[in-house]
C-alpha cells in the first residue's frame, strides 16, 4: 500500500445497498445470552424492546462470540471485556490483545528487549525492582502465571532485590479467591529467596480502593465518563486512539456519572440521559451514524447485587426503545449488540452447570464477565428488503460487525476485514 500518503481510503460502493440511511448503533455493555433462570437478570427484567428484536424476524437476530480467540485473546477460556470487545467492534479484524500479547512477549523473551526493561535492569545489582499490579487469574487485567514468569525472568537476568505490591481482585474473579493467589505468589517468592534473591510482598490492597477504582473512593476524576462508557465507544473503538479522526465529521458526547455512590445504589445510572442525547442526535439529521454504549448491565452486574442488576437491565431496555423509536421516525437502520456477557449469568456454576456453593454453603455470586455469546439485531424502516443474516459463517464474532455496518451504510468493507454478517437476497 506504500506510505500513508498513498493509501486510498475510499470504499467501494455496495452493489445492492443504498447510502444515506441514518444508523443507530447500540452497544449494551455486559448483555449476553444464557439459559433463563433466577440468576439471569436479563431474563428476570422486563425488557420488551430487546424481546421484540429477539422474537421478530429470525433472520435479523442472532448470536455472535464475544470472548476468547474471537476477540484476540489466548484461549476459549478467556472471557471478553469492554476493551477487547470494543476494539474488535471498531477494527473489524481480530488482533492479538492484552493477555495474548503478554504471552507472546514472555514466550519469545521480547519483553526483556524493551527499552523500559533495559532501563530498570541497570539497577538490578544494587537497587530494588518494584512490581505493582492485579493479582488474579481473571485474564481481563492480569494473569497470575504471567506474574510468576516475570518474577522468574527478572531473577534470571540479575535482579537481586524484588518487592511486589499486590492489588487483590474480587471483580473479575470470585470474592475471597485472593487468599489462594497470595499463597501461590508467596510460594514463588520463597523459591526465589532459596536461590539468593531477596523477593518479598511489600504491600497490598483491594483494586477498588487503591488504584483501579470505579466507585468514587476519592477518585472522582477517574470515574467521570465511565457511566456512559465514553472511552469505550471512542478510545477503544478507535483502536486505543485518543481524540477525533476528523472534528468536522465527528462529535463526542460525554454524560457525567453520578458521584459518591455505588452503581447498585443507582442502577438506572444515566441510561435515560444517554438515550435522550442519542435520540436528539438521530432526529437532528446531522449524523450518518449515532453510536452509543449503555453500561448498566455491566457496571451494576459487577456489584453482585442481583435485584439492582434487574433494575439496570430494565433501564437499559427503556433506553433502547427510545433510540429505536427515533430511528423509526427518520427511516433509519438500527444495529443492536453487546461487547461481552455479564448480567445474564450471575452465579458461579459447578461442572454440571448448577449454582455453586462455598464451604459455608452460601451461594457464590459471580461478579465477573462471562463466556456467553451476545446478541446482534438489525432492522428499522431503512433496512433494504432482502437483507438478512448469513448462515454460512461458522463462528462469527464481534469483529464481523464493522463490515456489517459498512454494508448498511452502502459500502463494501475492505478485503482484510472479517466477513459481513449480512447478505442481500433478491425478493
From TrEMBL:
<dbReference type="Pfam" id="PF06415">
    <property type="entry name" value="iPGM_N"/>
</dbReference>
<dbReference type="InterPro" id="IPR011258">
    <property type="entry name" value="BPG-indep_PGM_N"/>
</dbReference>
<dbReference type="Pfam" id="PF01676">
    <property type="entry name" value="Metalloenzyme"/>
</dbReference>
<comment type="pathway">
    <text>Carbohydrate degradation; glycolysis; pyruvate from D-glyceraldehyde 3-phosphate: step 3/5.</text>
</comment>
<dbReference type="InterPro" id="IPR005995">
    <property type="entry name" value="Pgm_bpd_ind"/>
</dbReference>
<keyword id="KW-0464">Manganese</keyword>
<dbReference type="InterPro" id="IPR006124">
    <property type="entry name" value="Metalloenzyme"/>
</dbReference>
<dbReference type="InterPro" id="IPR017850">
    <property type="entry name" value="Alkaline_phosphatase_core_sf"/>
</dbReference>
<keyword id="KW-0324">Glycolysis</keyword>
<feature type="domain" description="Metalloenzyme">
    <location>
        <begin position="22"/>
        <end position="411"/>
    </location>
</feature>
<protein>
    <recommendedName>
        <fullName>phosphoglycerate mutase (2,3-diphosphoglycerate-independent)</fullName>
        <ecNumber>5.4.2.12</ecNumber>
    </recommendedName>
</protein>
<dbReference type="InterPro" id="IPR036646">
    <property type="entry name" value="PGAM_B_sf"/>
</dbReference>
<keyword id="KW-0479">Metal-binding</keyword>
<keyword id="KW-0413">Isomerase</keyword>
<feature type="domain" description="BPG-independent PGAM N-terminal">
    <location>
        <begin position="102"/>
        <end position="230"/>
    </location>
</feature>
<comment type="similarity">
    <text>Belongs to the BPG-independent phosphoglycerate mutase family.</text>
</comment>
